[in-house]
Amino acid sequence: MKNTTNNIVISQLCKRHGEKDILKDVSFEAKQGRITAFLGPNGAGKSSTLRILLGLDRSTGTATFGGSNYVTFNTPLKVVGAAFDGIGGTPSRRVKTHLKIIAQSNNISFRRVSEVLKIVGLSEKSKARLGTLSLGEGQRLGLAVALLGDPQYIVLDEPTNGLDPTGIRWFRKFIRQQSDMGKTILLSSHLLSEVEAVADNVVIINHGKVIATGELQDVMKNLESLEDVFFSLTEEGEAKDEDFF
Ligand SMILES: Nc1ncnc2c1ncn2[C@@H]1O[C@H](COP(=O)(O)OP(=O)(O)OP(=O)(O)O)[C@@H](O)[C@H]1O
User: Fold this and answer.
1) For residues 14 and 60, what is the distance between their CA atoms, to the nearest angstrom?
2) Is the ipTM here above 0.90?
């Protein structure tokens, strides 16, 4: 039986920038062994929530991994693997060196570097310079970094951006394998079709407010697609953001 204590719990996050409330009492859970998609149109508040979860920004409310704040972890990569847009690092640095530097900072064995490169299909690029990687290869490298410490929690911001159809198919299989291993997975997306293909649970956010949450099947109940759910739950017109599809 799967342990259910390794959950990501977001509770009552409120965040204001100037006059604007960008997060309004955001609460939800991502459960162990499940893929939870955090879905919403551009500007809905997804990245802001994930940044708070990863200790990169502050707010009221709490955001925890198995009951602990990200900032309390001494070697965070061994607990949480996260991938955001961009891979960082100097463009002239080689892929393997990049991973070794990150591994060293978290007390992770260099042996793990070759392992994660193999998992994400980048072994042949280990000597390539970061600046020469394609967008999709950069995404894979971001996933390699996330996996370095073999973490329980995986948090990914728009992980399929820049991937071609083969890459997207690969990603779906990859992330399912990770959840089957009992990992807790939270990924953000503004693409409904992507979420429908990969998620067990879904949390929909719009204008900084969670408007639906639950098992994908339940949220979709009696509706043909998440597009219908989204339009049925948001104000007509306002939510019709072409970029959402
Ligand atoms: N530092 C900041 N100062 C002012 N406003 C901000 C700041 N950071 C975010 N915002 C605003 O907060 C809202 C939510 O932004 P956020 O990046 O969280 O959205 P998102 O759902 O991740 O969107 P996308 O899909 O486009 O990445 C947006 O209206 C954005 O302009």
Assistant:
1) 5
2) yes
